[in-house]
């Protein structure tokens, strides 16, 4: 079993920051989305959906993308559509229902839903009844595992008791609050709405419903944030006592998201300060008894996610970390949604107009995708083990793919010398049988995973830096 070191302090040497702060993929998928190609067709996806019924994992994971936001947060790297137009939202929801029914005809109803995740954008800018209507489609037409995870990302500025009560009545059992920071001046600088209802009061409203878990999400590396102010933010977060907490490192990709250029004028924290914020979060959260998970998550020891880490059975997809029990092939609905099936990835239409127009014509449109080779699937599993469980058993992975360990290493052209620098820097240890990543190594998980990424060498794609 993996033992978690709940040390209150982690110190990352400046030399390591300079050494490892290089552009690498975030590995929410392997291969990453910027390797997807437009030669992958809609028909390829529809055939893959049919084929997925006989693939593992058997469970179904649903992702619903609600792109709407009432204003643009300058840090945002998500696919959004800025509007307050209720007619557009109504038409979008109608299209979403049609897509769910169309794809649903291809999915074996003997399979069970293990996870539904609503992301965005801001799902809770929709009138609550729209969310209820869509949830009704799934509850009426599909079977569920005994304890599915039904989660929604919410902007606290658009949340109140009535909306929370409605979400719970629709079956939601996890609500994530995109807090980002408690300081109004930080939120104002990045053009994020400041909630009228304090976060601690919103959490109290959610807690009135037993069995509903609370996530708090934060971003570090934003204008006006300092190490001291972020420490105060973490203290306040600990006092609120969420079930899980996430501290995302701000990913600066202004060549992709032009609005981020405005943040450069305000001034962004240096990499060294971002690292100190990471250290502060680690110290505050582990000191409060939370278990650190992967790059940026923390969970209470009794949380399913922490238990899965202890058992080395944690998984990851575009929705984030998940347990083996809730892992399923991901069927994504809505604009830019990315389906993650066993054999393929496929991304929906890019704009709200294109998406609605296509669905209203009775069609489905995939704009790009990727068909995984057998080698891709092996690398995907290896990177999953590193990013999620901070551990790799060569024997276990080889066994999953009916290979001998030596044959697996030869297939990947893997040489243990590729890990020597990480060992020298106390980031991991290894034998011929396994790789064990240290607590310090969590800081460079993306860099370690990149060692196994045979597509990365010579790639022309741009990625955010690891710090």
From TrEMBL:
GO biological process: protoporphyrinogen IX biosynthetic process
Pathway linked to the protein: Porphyrin-containing compound metabolism; protoporphyrin-IX biosynthesis; protoporphyrinogen-IX from coproporphyrinogen-III (AdoMet route): step 1/1
Localization, UniProt: Cytoplasm
Residues at which S-adenosyl-L-methionine 2 binds: 75-77, 121-122, 180, 192, 217, 251
Pfam families: Radical_SAM (PF04055)
E.C. no: 1.3.98.3
GO CC term (a single one): cytoplasm
GO molecular function: 4 iron, 4 sulfur cluster binding; coproporphyrinogen dehydrogenase activity; coproporphyrinogen oxidase activity; metal ion binding
Protein origin, superkingdom: Bacteria
Residues given in the record as [4Fe-4S] cluster binding sites: 69, 73, 76
Top EC class of this enzyme: oxidoreductase
Family from the record: Belongs to the anaerobic coproporphyrinogen-III oxidase family.
Job of this protein: Involved in the heme biosynthesis. Catalyzes the anaerobic oxidative decarboxylation of propionate groups of rings A and B of coproporphyrinogen III to yield the vinyl groups in protoporphyrinogen IX.
Subunit structure as annotated in this protein's UniProt entry: Monomer.
Name listed for the protein in its UniProt record: Coproporphyrinogen-III oxidase
Source organism: Sunxiuqinia dokdonensis
